[in-house]
Amino acid sequence: MFRFCIADTEHDWREGTEQYKFIEHCLASVDRQKQPWLIFLAHRVLGYSSSSFYADEGSFEEPMGRESLQKLWQKYKVDIAVYGHAHNYERTCPIYQNIFTSREKSYYKGTLNGTIHVVAGGGGASLSDFTPINTTWSYFKDHDYGFVKLTAFDHSNLLFEYKKSRDGKVYDSLKS
């Protein structure tokens, strides 16, 4: 029920590159009748993060930017984009071109009209701090070790959970 499209963030992903063509092919080849949940994965944060690592650069993202990819995420209706690299946890609202498309925090039905971005980088290395800048698109931040779990109950119902490693309890979740 999931389709995962995984990008190599160590190569150029801007429009016209081989990586961009690969990503577009992966996203375009999804049969949403068979795989209704489209998840984009990458090591470096190609979407949004308020980790101090990115905020210090003034961008909330990797230096090459997300502009080219946002068009693809929107065109192919990517539900969730998950990244590592910043060693913390953060989830955004559905967002497109720096604007949140829904104020709902935990229950989504229908078309999101934007992509939910998740940094799930608390897998074991030293934790990354967040910037003191408050962003309107960031719904949940955690400076701890943890992991995410996706469960598709059927073609219409998805459960996304963030659990802390120390106790396995759910600290953030969303349903669709």
UniProtKB/TrEMBL annotation:
The keyword Iron-sulfur does not apply. Residues 114-173 form the Purple acid phosphatase C-terminal domain. The keyword Chloroplast does not apply. Keywords: Glycoprotein. Residues 10-89 form the Calcineurin-like phosphoesterase domain. It comes from the Eukaryota. GO terms for molecular function: hydrolase activity. Its cofactor is Zn(2+). This is Calcineurin-like phosphoesterase domain-containing protein. It comes from Salix viminalis (Common osier). The lineage of its organism: Eukaryota, Viridiplantae, Streptophyta, Embryophyta, Tracheophyta.
